[in-house]
Amino acid sequence: MDHKERIMTALQLEEPDRVPYCDYFDPESIINIGRLLCEDVPDVKFGIDYSWDEWLNLNEIQFSFMREFDIDAVFQGF
Q: Are the C-beta atoms of residues 72 and 22 closer than 8 Å to each other?
């Protein structure tokens, strides 16, 4: 099963191949994990102080470690 199939199966109260892994990552966590995987990582700031390009970069970093660590979904808190 891929990530989407796993989540949709669980939401339909059916049994997926494994329990979907879902987590929440705040910007500081994304940046700290991103420093291990990426080169162009912004500094930690208060949420409103990030530029649009920095937010897009944070999303790309988050997607890269979701793929790397096989995370099915995340709660988007920012």
A: yes
Q: Classify burial at 21, counting beta carbons within 10 Å of its beta carbon; exposed 0-12, middle 13-18, buried 19 or more.
A: middle
Residue 72, C-beta contacts closer than 8 angstroms, at least 6 positions apart:
3, 6, 7, 20, 21, 22
Helix 52-68, helix 27-37: angle, nearest 10: 60
Q: Which among 38, 32, 25 has a CA at the least distance from the CA of 64? A: 38
Q: Is the distance from CB of 43 to CB of 34 less than 8 angstroms?
A: no
pTM of the model: 0.69
39-71 per-position pLDDT tens digit:
888 888 887 888 999 888 888 888 888 888 888
Contact call for residues 75 and 23 (beta carbons, < 8 A): yes
